[in-house]
Every structure is written in C-alpha cells, then in structure tokens.
Amino acid sequence: MNRTDALLRYGTTIVVLSVVATWAWRSQLQSELTAQSLERRVLVERISAKAKDVQSTASIQDDLTNEASDNDLTSYPEKVVTEITRLKDPRFGVISAHWLDSEYAALFRQLKLPDAKLERLKSLLAERLQAATEAMRLGTAEDLVIDDMPDEKAILDAGTTDIDEAISAELGDADYGAFKAYQASASARRFMIAPFAQHLSSSSEPLSDSQVDQLAAAASQAGFGANAIVMRPPGPAIPSSLDSAATSVLSPAQQRDYQEFRSFWAAKNQVSTLALASFIEKQTAIANGQTK
Amino acid sequence: MARPSRPIVRYALALTAAAALCVEWSLVHSAATINQTLVQTDAEITRLTEQQSTLDTALKASRESVANQTQKNSALLKGMSPKLRRIARMLRLLAADRAKLGPSDPIRLKSGYLFAGQGFSWDLLQNETYARSQREMIKYELQTTNGPLLAQLAARGVDTERLMELAEEWRVGPEEARGIAIGQGLSWKLASQASDAASASIQKDLTDFLGTDDFATYQAYASGQYLADEVEQRLSYAGTQLTPDQYVNLATAIGKNNDPRGALEGWVNPDVYAAARGILTTEQLATLQLFVVDPRK
Description:
The structure holds two protein chains of two kinds.
Chain A: H1 3-71, H2 78-88, H3 97-111, H4 115-141, H5 152-171, H6 173-184, H7 186-200, H8 209-219, H9 240-249, H10 252-287
Chain B: H1 6-78, H2 82-100, H3 107-114, H4 128-155, H5 160-183, H6 188-210, H7 212-236, H8 244-257, H9 260-265, H10 270-276, H11 282-289
Helix pairs in contact in B: 4-5, 4-8, 5-6, 6-7, 7-8, 8-10
C-alpha cells in the first residue's frame, strides 16, 4: 500500500466517524428541543388558565363592588334616599288590621289556627303587605310605577322571599300550600271577586268561601299581573274562565247576580278606559305645547 | 478470489468520503437550525415564566381583594335590618328592570294617570257613554255598600229602589253640576256653589223621602261602615259572625257615637261599646273590646 492509498483510507474513516459524531450531537439537540417545546406548551396552558382566573376574579370583584354599592343605600339619588329614610321609620307602613283582614280573613277562616299561631301569621302577613307597599314607594321614588315594570313579580318576590320562608316555617307544608294557592289568586280575589262577593253578602244567597275560592282561581286567568296594590287601569275584561266557573259554581239566583256584576265590571272598565284616553289626550297636548 | 484492482478501491474510498461529507454538511445544517430554534424557545420560556409570575402576583392580589370585599359586604349586610336588605334587593331589581324599558314605554304617563285622580276630566261628563257608565257603576257600588241597610228598610216597607235612585243622584249630581258649570266657563267658586246647591237640593229630597230619623241612620250607617267591616271580618274567623241586622245596627252605632279620629285610626270609643251591648253577643263584645280606645284617657 502506498502513501496515497493510506491517506485515502484514513481520510475516509475520519469523515465517516465525524458523520456519526454529528448525527449523535444533532439527535441530542433534537431531544432538547422536544423537551423545551413540551415545557413551553405547559407554560402556555398554565398562563391561559391563570389569565382566565384573573379575568373571572376581576368579574367577581366587580360584582362584589356593585353589590356593596347597591347595599350602600346612601349611594342612591336623593329622592330615593329620602324615601328609604321614611321607610326605615317604624311609624311608616304600619299595616292596618282592616287591610290585613280584608285581604286574608277568608284564609284565616280556612286555616282555623290557634290564637298564638294566628297572631304570628298575621304579623308576617302584615310585613308581607308592608314589603309590597315598599316596592311601590321605592318605584315611585325612582319615577317608576311598579305595576308597569316588566319584572314586577320578581321585584315583589325579592321583597317577600324571606317572609314567605318564615311563613312556611310557621305553617308547615299543608297550610303553607293553602297560603300559596290563596296568594296566587290574590289579585283576582281582591279586584274582581271581592266586589261581587260583597254585593251578594246581604242577599238571600251569599257566596260561600269555597265559591269565592273557585271563582278567584278562575278569575286569575285574567291579565292582572302581580298588581300588588292597585289595579292597573282600565283593568282586564272578565275572562271566559270566570264565565265557565260561574256556570258550574253558582246557583241560578247567583248566576243572575253574576250577569249584573258583569255589567258593572264592563261599566267600570268603560269609565276607566275613557278617563285614560282623556288623560293621554291631554298629556299629548301638553307635550305638543297645545295646552288650553 | 481475486482482490479488486487498486483504482477501483481508490474510487470507492473517494466516493464514500464524498458521500460522508455531504451527509455531514446536511447534519450540521440541520443541527444549526435546531440550535437556533432552541435559543428562541429558551427566550420564549423565560418570557412566559415571567408572565406566569406576574399573573400569579395579580391573581393573589385579586383573590385577597375579593376576600376583603366579601368580608366588607358581609359586614355591611350583617349591619342591615331584614327590611333594609329587602329594600336593597328590590332597588337592585328596579334598576335592572329600568334598563329593559324602551323610550316608548309609557311609564311616566301611567304614573301621571295613576296620580291624577284616575285621570278625571270635567270634559268627560259631557260624554254620554262615560256619564251612563259612571252612573251604572256607582249604582252597583251603592247597592253593595248599602245592601244590609236596604234589606232592613225594605222589611219596614221603604221603597228601596227610590232610595237608591236618590242616593245615586246625591253621589253623582253635585259633581255633574260642577262639571256643567265649568264646561260653561264659570269660575271654580261659582261651580262649587252650583255643586253645593245641587247637593243640598238632593239631600232635602232624600230627607223628605226617608224622614229625619231614617236619614240620620242612613248617614250614620255610611260613616260607621268602615269600622263595622273591620269588626265583621275579625268576627268571621273568630266563629261568631254578625247577622245582617247586627251589622247594620253596629255600623249605625259606630257612625252615631264614634270620634271622627277613631274612624281614621281604626278604633271605637267606649260610647260605641256601650251602644253595642244591645246589639252584639257576649263573645262578639269581647272582640269589639279589642277595638276600644278611650280618647279621654
């Protein structure tokens, strides 16, 4: 073997060995890169989760701050704060026994509670009526009419939920169920059925409590809404469900009286509708600068 | 076996060396690219680690703030009475509800309507449908409130239909007279005089029709009804309901004997209680006793 051959053999061997070494080095770099990529992905996921946490905590913080502001009753407009001051006065909102009885005497007759329990229920119901008047007065202080609010029922519920829980605890399931059923038809009972029942009270065939209950349940199909304190004028028409109930629940003599009541209701509705139209006409004229 | 010739071996070695050099170049190039990516990723990891640390700090501060605010809110709520808590809840919902209203929602209009005496307008009295409906409505209401009294008077032979006609006229006539006067352009003072004159005239007709005593009873019954209703409702769930005659006599006794303040504040004076002794049973009197307030004490 001459020198050239030997050089060629050694050179080739060195180059091949170098390739092997470079390949090993590259593989090591590749492994490091894979590990780093994994680490990076984990970090990105963690950061994304933490960013969401930060966002959600900030939102909770906002809610809490708003809640604090809402609960700080001095932060409302002056008119509302004045009304709140009035409502805080214990002399305000004393619910008269007359009002309480006119709303709930039929329920008291139905429940037949012992005296002490009856007194506790009355106290809770008085507070319930007080909450309804509070809702109305707060609305007025905000230049709103509670009966016209889209979520009138939710607003009233917010005022009465705690009281209803206390009533439930006081009455137990069965009597509380009777209370809820009574309350569900309260608006119809107060505005539509009570005048009819009172009209018949001195007749030879007054309505029984059971008849009133059935008529009130049927009348509650009319669009009274929650109508806590006053009936939204002009008031609903008599629903067909009440006509059907009248046929099945009332005696023939009472049915004749019912027809008279229908005429009364229609007349009352007519008076209210015309008064409303006249008022709107006048308001529009005032708005358009056409006052007399 | 014959050994390959020297030129072939040389050629094979040279070829191997050349191929190895190509592979080497490719490997080095690839390794350099990987190394460059490694450097970039390393820098990114450092940045992400710092970002993570910043977020950790922010999150910790935020959680502490939430905990503090929760504590503050809870302390605020604890200091509020149930009444104030419900007021706060209702105000919150009112505000949310207000946000749902559009500009065309006639809230203020209806508010005005509700507080404008049911939108009454004197012009309406010129509207025949309104006047007829109003009279029909009032007639029914008068029959309702006077029902027990009418039954008692009818039993004594009084023409109750005529009585109701006069009562309806007494309720509606004076205001119609006022409305007509205003409609004719008279001043409020003159219109009021017209209204008073109409009222006095109808009252005279009513007195002539009923006689002085029954007219006094009619008036006393009307003013005592509010409290009599209250007593009646209370007795209705005490198991000692009033008869229609008892109701009329009690309302009349209240109307004749009670203090005007009592009617407003929901109590009766001892004179009413004394008069009721001849009207109510012992059990019923016990309930009436709950309403007695002596204004002289």
